[in-house]
Design goal:
Elements lengths: L9 E7 L3 E6 L32 H17 L6 E4 L11 H15 L4 E6 L7 H9 L2 E5 L5 H8 L7 H10 L6 E5 L2 E4 L2 E4 L3 H14 L3 E5 L10 E2 L3 H12 L5 E5 L1
Parallel strand pairs: 2-3, 3-4, 4-5, 5-6, 6-9, 9-11
Antiparallel strand pairs: 1-2, 7-8, 7-10
The structure holds iron/sulfur cluster.
Iron/sulfur cluster binds next to loops.
Length: about 260
């Protein structure tokens, strides 16, 4: 089976390696993938569009989420996280801030122990509404697969001209203390380019970036689902453990690994 889209606005809860019992929130249209990147490993397949006229409106979203949370509560289902992920980059939604605020207030009403989590590629941090939304949630998980621009372009394939140093700068400037960086470690080949963000050079650049960004936590993880690009290698748990050992005393934050 290849990569696939999420066909629901709310999905799960699913058991997540990193987030526990996680209710997925997909505010990207359910029939297409909308993202500012086109990562080689994206579980939703290749990016179709960078923007859309079909984003869900915030009032409809609120009603759908509230109905869902009520049902889960009635069935005594536990939630650890309400997680913005889905068919692309959630921060591209023009009403992202008001949707996040609605989600927080519904979380407070129905599942006060659950964390609100956003997985983002960091490309929209020039917008103050996106920075504000990330500042009021519990777990802003920021993507950084490479701190070397050429490697970033090969792995994450931005849909427009953006330099990874700008993203690193924007991560650094986020002043909230709960920043989390996530890095997908991979090796492989695509279009005759070799990919290996576990090389000494790549890890050294990542260490420098992490020490500049100063996150609370650095998550290292590996491919878990079918990818649009062939010839990508899933690292083993032993390999990722070794990498963690190599990195741990060189950065000032905790490192967690997920394989
Ligand atoms: S940033 Fe996320 S959603 Fe976008 S292409 Fe990469 S993995 Fe997929």
């Amino acid at each position: 089976m290849g990569p696939s889209l999420f066909h629901e606005i709310i999905y799960g809860p699913v058991k997540s390696r990193r987030l526990g019992n996680s209710l997925g929130i997909n505010i990207i249209p359910t029939n297409e993938k909308i993202c500012s990147f086109d990562c080689l490993y994206c579980e939703c397949g290749w990016t179709q569009e960078f923007t859309s006229n079909n984003f869900i409106d915030s009032e409809t979203f609120k009603n759908i989420l509230e109905n869902h949370l009520k049902k889960l509560q009635d069935n005594n289902i536990n939630l650890d996280s309400i997680t913005f992920s889905g068919n692309g980059e959630s921060t591209l939604h023009p009403a992202f801030l008001s949707i996040v605020k609605q989600t927080i207030s519904l979380r407070d009403r129905y599942f006060s122990n659950a964390k609100v989590t956003v997985l983002t590629n960091g490309s929209m941090l020039h917008l103050s509404q996106v920075r504000e939304a990330l500042s009021i949630i519990d777990q802003p998980i920021l993507k950084l697969d490479s701190a070397i621009h050429q490697e970033f372009e090969i792995i994450n394939r931005p849909m427009y001209k953006i330099n990874i140093q700008t993203i690193i700068e924007n991560y650094t400037n986020l002043s909230f203390p709960n920043k989390i960086i996530q890095t997908l470690l991979l090796r492989g080949e695509y279009n005759e380019s070799k990919i290996d963000n576990t090389s000494d050079e790549s890890l050294k650049a990542l260490i420098d970036a992490i020490n500049k960004i100063n996150p609370k936590l650095w998550m290292l993880y590996v491919i878990d689902r079918p990818t649009p690009a062939n010839n990508l290698e899933k690292l083993t748990f032993a390999e990722i453990e070794q990498i963690k050992t190599k990195l741990q005393d060189k950065v000032n934050c905790e490192i967690n690994i997920y394989a």
